[in-house]
Amino acid sequence: MNVDPFDSRLDDELERARLRRLFAQGLEREVGYVLPLKRDDDPALDGPRWITGPWFFRDERMYLFPGDSPMGYRLPLDSLPWVSKGDYPYHVEADPFAPRGSLPAATQIRGQQAARAAGGLAGGGTPAPPRSSGAGPASGQAPLDAAALARSSRRFESAHWVTRTALVVEARDPRRASGPKAEGLGQASSVLYVFMPPLQTLEHYLELLVAVEATAASLGVKVVLEGYPPPRDPRLKVLQVTPDPGVIEVNIHPAHDWRELVEHTEFLYEAARQSRLSTEKFMLDGRHTGTGGGNHFVLGGATPADSPFLRRPDLLGSLLGYWHNHPALSYLFSGLFIGPTSQAPRVDEARNDQLHELEIAIAEIDRKSERYGERLPPWLVDRTLRNVLIDVTGNTHRSEFCIDKLYSPDASTGRLGLLELRAFEMPPHAHMSIVQQLLLRALVTRFWNKPYREPLVRWGTALHDRCLLPSFVWMDIEDVVEQMQRAGFAFDLAWFAPHFEFRFPKVGELDARGVHLVLRHALEPWHVMGEEGAAGTTVRYVDSTLERLEVRVSGLVDSRHVITVNGQVLPLQPTGRAGEFVAAVRYRAWAAPSSLHPTIAVHAPLTIDLVDRWMQRSLGGCQYHVAHPGGRSHDTFPVNAFEAESRRLARYFPFGHTPDQGFAKPIELPAERSLEFPFTLDLRRH
């Protein structure tokens, strides 16, 4: 039990539940059963087979490590006899590029298992001892018989014959996985759990799985598999469901064609709905947004050798260049958390010179492609782009284009020929996700036929200025759709209208004296603050106190009319249409002790006026509140879309302009503009 009276931790609910369970079942009772088991692939006359052998412990009993994990994770493997590094049976994963034949049929594996069980372990026979050591004849070790298998090792002798992997069978209450509160509800039950050992090939895993199924069928019991998953193999379809904080992560198997991809996406959304899960939520103020879960797309081939990014590395360079030159692709499909410290920053959001390095990397790939042609080494792509596609901390995974699984020579799991696009958030409807995937497939096809070779744009501070405003994001998407249509892909701009309305919801409209004003939510980067100490640890907060609104005005006479926000003139910029102007206002929505400039007060509510300079008075205006205008604090989230909409409508008033005496000083033109952010009025500076 490893109970220390001075460290009982009885105030911990999990520890109390564990101690209660130990004493309830009895300290003298067995928890489960362990069968040392491994696959012997020695190419001898006897052929490959499964072998087992005894385990030796000083107390002649095996005690598990304390904890609530499955029994297979708590085996005292360090207590087994010592083995040298040269004799240790390391598991070497197969090369992803190694040729693989077709998997044997299920009937063939079951027939082999039935024949083996007739005279083997399942049929009451004796376990097969290893015919020779794992090190082979070159190590000078003599073959082992059954008597040698059962002996213990001598002092300073490497116990190379000991089987160090095991199949574990344990019966336990499934309520334990839901915590101590769930364990105290209902009736106690018992389920048989089978812990699968680590194996090197998928064929071996299937053989053992068929043996477990046959044994369970003969005994008439149901079992639950746990432990090590099957070895990674392109012939195996894998569906993984992982609980993450606040969301459920689902990794579905690849699709071979477009019809199958649509079927997978629609089925996933429908299965989530029937499980009372959703890809959308409503915030306390009623704003409709995503759950924060990623909708990461992984592109590749059926096998690593079929990956288009390894066969044509210039395809990856084309995607990088096109994505960079069209910021709308980065921000229209993203979540609320964007910017240099987000989970998927753009290349030009990392370092100031990163774009220059990317140009060199793409040029190097093109030069090597011309030299080697189809024989271009696949590792060259990884070595060229690995230190470029990173975030500000050097993390290769937190990048808009992640190549961790493209062809990393560090491990076989990194040489899969896969490209992961991480800047996508889960949209609220399946068809919205399908449109995103269709755009990606069309871009890959387009650049496969004709690579993209336009120079990279230096966006500079405009990336977090005009590129975060809804009007310019929509203009950029219009350019993308038009280019795809000219390339032969019949895209429709209306397909992206739901994405636009979901990412940039409308706040309200105002008409006054022939001038039309529209307010929309714009994007605002969230920055990570410096380290702070908290409760015995170090934390880094994210500053989400700032918000941004876009103000788009049409019918404006620029020499006469101005727009003010809380008395400050908005730096309106023309959109290219006659009489239409746009600008953004950045303001502090709520106060937080850990934020940039925490002494600056909240700017809400925002009073937006249409001012006539000739008359020096407001022609009309509106007010926007970030919370309930009556000061009410919502303690619960909206129960449905109707309540959320009512909360949104309650925060916008199409009236409430500043009275005439509010403008004590004449408003002069041109309005003061920031050199770094000419499209944005930052109320923190006033």
Write the topology of this structure:
Layout: H1 13-25, E1 32-36, E2 38-40, E3 49-51, H2 106-119, H3 146-149, E4 166-172, H4 180-183, E5 191-196, H5 202-219, E6 223-227, E7 240-244, E8 247-251, H6 258-274, E9 280-282, E10 288-290, E11 297-299, H7 308-311, H8 313-325, H9 328-331, H10 354-372, H11 379-385, E12 401-402, E13 419-421, H12 430-449, H13 470-486, H14 497-503, E14 506-512, E15 515-522, E16 527-534, E17 537-543, E18 546-554, E19 561-565, E20 568-569, E21 573-574, E22 580-588, E23 606-612, E24 617-624, H15 641-649, E25 652-653, E26 680-682
Parallel strand pairs: 5-6, 22-26
Antiparallel strand pairs: 1-4, 2-3, 4-5, 7-8, 9-10, 11-13, 12-13, 14-15, 15-18, 16-17, 18-22, 19-20, 19-23, 21-22, 23-24, 24-25
Provide a concise account of the structure shown:
This protein is an alpha+beta fold and 686 residues long. The protein is 25% helix and 19% strand.
Structure description:
By secondary structure, this protein is an alpha+beta fold. 25% of the residues lie in helices and 19% in strands. The chain has 15 helices and 26 strands. A hairpin with a 2-residue loop joins β14 and β15. α2 (106-119) packs across α5, α6 (258-274) runs antiparallel to α12 and α10 packs antiparallel against α11. The longest helix is centred in the middle third of the chain and has 20 residues, at 430-449.
What is the end-to-end distance? 65 Å
Number of helices: 15
Rg from Cα: 32 Å
Largest sheet: number of strands, sense, barrel closure:
6 strands, mixed
Shape: globular
Would you tell me the structural class of the helices and strands? alpha+beta
- Beta fraction of the residues? 15-25%
User: Runs with pLDDT <50, length 5+?
Assistant: 121-127, 129-142
Please report the total strand number as a whole number.
26
- What's the rounded overall pLDDT mean? 85
| Fraction of residues in H or I helices | 10-25%
